[in-house]
Amino acid sequence: MAKSLRRDFTDPEKKKIITVLSETLKDLGYLDVKTYGEIIEDRGSQITLSTLGQDIVDQLVMKRAPKRDMGPDNKKKNLLESELLQDSKNLK
């Protein structure tokens, strides 16, 4: 039987990652954007960030276009990515 390569984050690792994500989102004003469900999800071996929320699919099915709130030029998304890449260096 193949050995699983999955390793869940420890509680301190999760707390640090979620704190960095939350603070960066707050600093960049992402918490002021309407979201649909949880934006940070703990999946054990990964922490998932969904800036529009985990339930965004329900909104898209209803033919709404909330991604436009993030800017047509992806400026907000690109800034978030850049900031998180910088912050991730401190997680090692």
Kindly describe this structure.
There is one protein chain. The chain is mainly alpha-helical. It has a domain at 11-72. Helices cover 40% and strands 7% of the residues. It contains three helices and two strands. Strands 1-2 form a two-stranded antiparallel sheet. Helix 1 runs antiparallel to helix 3 (75-88).
Give a quick rundown of the structure.
The protein has helices spanning 11-27, 56-61, 75-88; strands at 40-42, 47-49.
Chain-wise SSE layout:
Blueprint: H1 11-27, E1 40-42, E2 47-49, H2 56-61, H3 75-88
Antiparallel strand pairs: 1-2
* SS element count, helices: 3
Instruction: Please state the oligomeric state of the protein chains shown.
Output: single chain
Question: Got a strand count?
Answer: 2
Helix percent reads: 40-55%
The string of secondary-structure elements, in order, is HEEHH
Proportion of beta-strand residues: 5-15%
* Global mean pLDDT: 82
Major sheet: size, sense and barrel closure? Answer: 2 strands, antiparallel
Unreliably modeled segments? none
Distance between the amino and carboxyl termini: 32 Å
Strand order of the largest sheet: 1-2
Structural class, from helix and strand content? mainly alpha
Please tell me what the overall shape is.
globular
Cα radius of gyration in angstroms? 15 Å
